[in-house]
C-alpha cells in the first residue's frame, strides 16, 4: 500500500479519556474511531490486524475440527426466556423491540442461539460431538466501558460451543480447545498464563473453567502463579495456603479491656500478639431467591474474606454483608462482635486456616471488650470449615512449598464446561445408544478478538508507539524514502514492487515527508521492520537500512540482498 493513497492518519495527542497505552496508541496511530462511549469503528489498519487475529483463530480451530457458522446478531427474547436468562442477564443485555413490539436483544453471547440450532438439527448420539464457532460482534451494555477496545460495549468475539454425549467427551473437547487457545496466543507472540477461574453466573460453582490471561501491568485481573509447581489461578478462585503459623494452645476464656479498638490489628497490637492469633468475626446474609440466611464467618485476623468463595460454597444467588437489622436480631455489637454466646442461634463458617483446637482473641460482644482463649472446637457447638480467604502475599501454592507470585493480566480467552444447563432448560435432547432421550453436555469457549488486539499493544509498546508482534502487524514493512530526486523515488518504487512480489506486506511512505515526522509515524505505527532508502547513502554505497522495531537493531543491506534479508528477519520475528 502506498501511503499517499491510503486512508490513514496519525495524531500527536491521544484524547483525554484514553487512560491506557493501547487506547492511546490505537487512537494516535489511526486504528480506531470512537463512534460513542464504548463503541468504535475499526479503521483500515485495525481491520488488517483483526483479520490476522481471526485467521490465526480459524486455522487453529479448523485443526481441531471445529466448524465455523454465523448466527444472527439479533436474537428473539423467547430463546432467552427459555433458558431463564432474559430475567437474569440484567441491564448488560441491550433489548430492542420491532414494530410489532416483539422483544429482541443484541447478542451478548450465544449459548441460547446455538442450542436452538443444535436441537433442530441433531437427534442422535451418533452425530456427536458437535463443535461450532463464529467470529462476530457482541453487545454488552457494560456499566463502565473503558480502556478503548479493552472493555467496549460492542466488541468482536470468537465464540465456540461443543455438544458431547458424556463427561469424558466433554473433557476431550475442552482439552482440544485448551490446546488450540494456547497455540493461538503463542502464534500471536503473546506472553500469557492459563488460570483456573470462577464460573460466575454461567454454570454451577464447581464447573471447570480456565481463563487465558495476557500478562500486562495495566491488566484489570489479578492472577496468582507458582511457576515451578505449575499452579495458576485467578485471584477470585486461588486456593493458596498460608505458611505454617504459630497458634496458642487452648486456654480459659478471659475478658480483656480493649477501649476503642474495633479492629483485629488494634487489639493484636495492644495485647502484643500476632494478628493471626485474633479472629475476625463477619456476619453475612445469603439469598436464595427471596429466602435469606444469616451466617457468621470467622477468619484469621489478618485475612480477608473472598466473597466469591463464600457465594460458591453456599450455592447462594447472592451474598452480602449483613445489615444493621440482622445484627440487632442477634444482639451483635459492631466492632466487638463475638461468636461466643451466639452458638446454636446462627450458622458458623470457619476459614480453614484456623486451627479449631487453638485459642484466639475474639470480640466480647460488649463495647470496648474482647475475649482471650476462644477455642472454636470447644466453644462452638457446630461449625463448618471451608476455604474462604483471599490469597495474599507470602502464601504458598496448594500442596507445595513454593511461594506464589501476583501478576496482572488481561483476560483474552475463557473456556468453560457448561454441563447440561442450556440443553436441559431448552429441552435439547438426543437419543442415546439405548434409544433414550438425554441432555448432551455443553462447553463454551470465547476469545475476545478486539480485546486481544488491545492486549497485544499493552504487552508490546514503548514510549514511541506500538511494537506489533509480527504475526498480527497490519503490514510487515514500513518502507521510507529520503530524498527529492526523481531517480531516488523511482528506485524506492522499484523496491516496493520487489517486496510486494516477494509477498512482503509493505507500506510505502511516498508522502514526501522529512525523515523526522516520517520516522515518528513509523515508530508509532509499530510495523516489525522499517526499511529506509536514503538518497545519499544509496548513491555512495548502494545500501539501504533495515531497522527492527522491537530491538532497535539496524543493518545495512545491498539492494540485491534486501528482499531475502527482510524475509529472513520476518521469519525470525514470526517464530518468537
Ligand atoms: P470480563 O470479566 O472482562 O468482563 P467476561 O468474563 O464477562 O469478561 P466472557 O463472557 O468470558 O467475558 O467473554 C469471552 C471473552 O470476550 C473475554 O475473555 C474477553 O476476551 C472478551 N470480552 C468480554 N467482554 C468484553 C468487552 N466488554 N470488551 C471487549 N472484549 C470483551
Ligand atoms: Mg470471562
Question: How do the helices and strands line up, and which of them pair or pack?
Answer:
Blueprint: H1 21-28, E1 32-36, E2 39-42, H2 44-63, E3 67-68, E4 74-76, H3 77-83, H4 85-88, E5 95-97, E6 103-106, H5 111-121, E7 130-139, E8 154-164, H6 167-187, E9 192-196, E10 209-215, E11 221-226, E12 231-234, E13 254-257, H7 264-271, E14 279-288, E15 291-300, H8 307-314, E16 318-321, H9 324-329, E17 347-351, E18 360-363, E19 369-374, H10 376-379, E20 384-386, E21 405-419, H11 421-425, E22 430-431, E23 437-438, E24 441-448, H12 449-459, E25 461-462, E26 465-466, E27 477-482, H13 486-501, E28 506-509, H14 515-525, E29 529-534, H15 535-541, E30 543-548, E31 554-558, H16 559-574
Parallel strand pairs: 3-7, 15-17, 17-20, 27-28, 27-29
Antiparallel strand pairs: 1-2, 4-6, 5-6, 7-8, 8-24, 9-10, 10-21, 11-12, 11-21, 13-19, 14-15, 14-16, 18-19, 21-24, 22-23, 25-26, 29-30, 30-31
The chain binds adenosine-5'-triphosphate (ATP) and magnesium ion.
